[in-house]
Amino acid sequence: MESEREWDGWKGEHLSVEILYAYAGIAQQILIENDNRYVLVDCGDGTLRDLRDRNFDMTRLSGILITHGHFDHVGGLHALLGSLRMIVRRDPLRIIAPAGCHQLSQIVRGFLNCYGDSLPFEIERIAAMSREAIELDAFSVEPFPVVHCGSLASGEIFDQIPAMGYRITADGETVAVTGDTGMCEDVKDLVRDVDLALIEATFYDDQTVPMDVLERVHLNESLANKLGQTAKDYRLVHRIRRR
Length: 243
Hints:
The protein is α/β, with parallel strands linked by helices. The protein has helices at 47-53, 71-74, 77-86, 102-115, 185-191, 211-216, 221-228; strands at 10-11, 16-23, 27-34, 37-41, 61-65, 93-98, 123-128, 134-136, 139-145, 149-151, 157-160, 164-170, 173-177, 196-200, 234-237. 23% of the residues lie in helices and 32% in strands.
């Protein structure tokens, strides 16, 4: 498995995956399809643009899975909600996120404060609980808690935040998305034996990264590749962008 296989799409027997964008500290948005229904995993800056560039039919969106509340994973949500309002979506929009994800709460609250009196659809927030499956149209979503702390480029590490990886299953086929994570037992369980694992690999192996960062904040490509070998297939995502 080559470590640079981030950007190509994947198609199984029932599920297909398109990585719209996934660079660390910029944005991540991943689109998963089954039988012409879609779930969006994370909603970073530019999500609306990425979907519109693909002529995506917004009425086919079953729901949004948020792995955690950092800006590069939720920064495009306000614009996406605005577009769904503009096209007069009628079906409820379900947003699954870790319990205690206060960034998501603030974004949704702010949007409703601006447009709640003219919103043609209901925003249904669902708290993701460890290993408790959630049915989402044709998909079954199983959340796995992962270890992720905020950090700064200066090296400061903050407290752990609510963060989830997800298994998305349809017709017996499963895709796992780790979200941002350090190495932990739950992320090992998350990716083991799935048909496709999308594994964050923020750091390159030629970077010197302290062990506490790899355990509490982000993985490097060696750790991500080791995880990926426990799945049937995998891709590395959420890399640092290099020119």
